[in-house]
């Protein structure tokens, strides 16, 4: 039969349905939701659903928020042959990895390019390097997080993980082409038979579940945990009890933060930086602190030094003393000042000298401390 819009019209019944739970409709809905969450951008990521004897797969190269049921590929579950293949579109490069999950009994597989998933793989890689270990065949591990309860214990194991259980998600290395990840994914599944997800370093994550609802909720739970793990590492918080006992090495170094309190920079010791800190650190020296009980030079000592300077020859106090000597006698006391007039003149001169000395003490020596009387001439 002739084709219509490059699609074999004999297979349209496989994707035509008004039921929102039909795989062709569900894939479009999921892709739009994942796009809005930022998990799939451009044309990246993908989703596949198994129903009865068919496998429904989102195409490659179609913007996820614009996907329509007629874009969906349909494959025979037993033979893996396409029974509906839009000729204007390319099959998803994720298809071999979806099939690997379905071989393990999954009913739906979701692939996202979540930023949090990517960051977690980088943090695990960095921790391995700092501990002198290889990041190959590494694993993301976390425990004592409530959302872990959203992940099943494993195939043929009833129930979900508990708060005190440890979640393990294996990490495989990225490749130039998506389909080349298949072998690594299968090996990770064999090493961790209870896992429902595999992280791809610097790429994203594959998550699967027994049905669409479980795959969706597990993907949501994992993305929450990945994001929380990144934030925990930023704050220097451990993912596991082993990290707590050993001490986390990468507290603030993993992700640089702008540490301020109300715009005031915080120093490494946790106190607001002072201007003196900046000046001393700019010279390459650490801030210097006085030891307890060791005070700066007192104001009294400084005042005494300046008082001594005031008594030096040529100072105001010295000149005042010379003038008193001159009034009492010229050239060593040859002439004496006698009578009321002379004594009054002497008193006026002394008062003027006294005022000059007081002014000198205020400007040059500083204010006297309370309780210490002023010296008289």
Overview of the structural elements:
With 377 residues, the protein is an alpha+beta fold. The chain folds into 3 domains: 1-92, 3-Layer(aba) Sandwich (L-fuculose-1-phosphate Aldolase); 110-274, L-fuculose-1-phosphate Aldolase, CATH 3.40.225.10; 311-365, no CATH class. The chain is 37% helix and 15% strand. Strands 4-3-2-1-5-11-10-9-6 form a 9-stranded mixed β-sheet, with helices on both faces. A two-stranded antiparallel sheet has the order 7-8. The chain has a two-stranded antiparallel ribbon with strand order 12-13. A hairpin with a 2-residue loop joins strand 12 (260-261) and strand 13. The longest helix has 27 residues, at 339-365. The model is unreliable at 1-5, 250-264, 266-272, 274-287 and 330-335 (pLDDT under 50). It is found in: Cytoplasm. Its main location: cytoplasm. Pfam families: Aldolase_II.
């Amino acid at each position: 039969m002739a084709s219509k819009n490059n699609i074999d019209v004999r297979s349209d019944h496989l994707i035509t349905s008004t039921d929102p739970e039909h795989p062709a409709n569900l894939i479009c809905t999921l892709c739009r939701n994942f796009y809005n969450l930022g998990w799939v951008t451009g044309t990246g990521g993908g989703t596949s659903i198994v129903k009865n004897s068919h496998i429904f797969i989102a195409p490659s190269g179609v913007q996820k928020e614009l996907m329509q049921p007629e874009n969906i590929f349909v494959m025979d579950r037993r033979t893996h042959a396409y029974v509906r293949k839009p000729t204007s579109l390319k099959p998803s490069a994720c298809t071999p990895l979806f099939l690997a999950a379905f071989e393990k009994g999954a009913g739906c597989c979701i692939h996202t390019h979540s930023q949090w998933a990517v960051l977690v793989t980088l943090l695990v890689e960095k921790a391995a390097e700092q501990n002198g270990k290889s990041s190959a065949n590494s694993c993301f591990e976390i425990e004592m997080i409530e959302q872990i309860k959203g992940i099943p214990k494993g195939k043929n194991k009833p129930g979900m993980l508990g708060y005190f259980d440890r979640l393990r998600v294996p990490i495989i290395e990225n490749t130039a082409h998506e389909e080349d990840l298949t072998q690594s994914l299968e090996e990770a599944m064999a090493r961790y038979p209870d896992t429902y997800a595999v992280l791809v370093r610097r790429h994203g994550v594959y998550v699967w579940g027994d049905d669409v609802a479980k795959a969706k909720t597990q993907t949501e739970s994992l993305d929450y945990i990945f994001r929380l793990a990144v934030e925990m590492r930023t704050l220097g918080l451990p993912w596991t009890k082993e990290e707590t006992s050993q001490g986390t090495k990468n507290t603030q170094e993993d992700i640089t933060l702008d540490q301020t309190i109300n715009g005031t920079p915080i120093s490494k010791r946790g106190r607001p930086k002072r201007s003196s800190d900046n000046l001393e650190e700019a010279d390459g020296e650490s801030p210097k602190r006085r030891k307890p009980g060791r005070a700066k030079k007192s104001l009294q000592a400084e005042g005494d030094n300046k008082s001594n300077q005031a008594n030096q020859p040529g100072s105001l106090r010295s000149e005042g003393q010379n003038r008193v000597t001159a009034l009492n006698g010229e050239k060593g006391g040859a002439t004496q000042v006698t009578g009321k007039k002379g004594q009054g003149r002497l008193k006026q001169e002394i008062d003027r000298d006294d005022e000059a000395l007081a002014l000198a003490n205020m400007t040059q020596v500083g204010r006297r401390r309370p309780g210490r009387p002023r010296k008289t001439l």
